[in-house]
Design the sequence.
């Protein structure tokens, strides 16, 4: 997994159901084996996870390609990447 090129976990967003009051840590280093969630792999990098506490029950769309300009959220960039 990589933070550059077209590397990533998958070429579409992860639909993640969250609940009000729930806190999730999303991988920002691109090395997590449990993407899009942080598994602690960032300890060998200078990047930290994006920790988000949600204020309502909802579905969030988390970047799977690791190229979104709005990470950890999907911004549609995956649709412009070649395989």
Sequence:
């Amino acid at each position: 997994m990589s933070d550059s090129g077209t590397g990533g976990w998958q070429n579409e967003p992860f639909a993640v159901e969250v609940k009000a009051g729930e806190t999730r840590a999303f991988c920002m280093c691109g090395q997590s084996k449990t993407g899009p969630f942080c598994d602690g792999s960032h300890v060998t990098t200078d990047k930290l996870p994006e920790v988000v506490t949600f204020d309502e029950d909802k579905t969030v769309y988390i970047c799977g390609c690791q190229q979104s300009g709005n990470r950890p959220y999907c911004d549609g960039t995956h649709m412009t990447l070649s395989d």
Notes: The two ends are 15 Å apart (CA to CA). The chain has no helices and four strands. Confidence is low (pLDDT under 50) at residues 1-6.
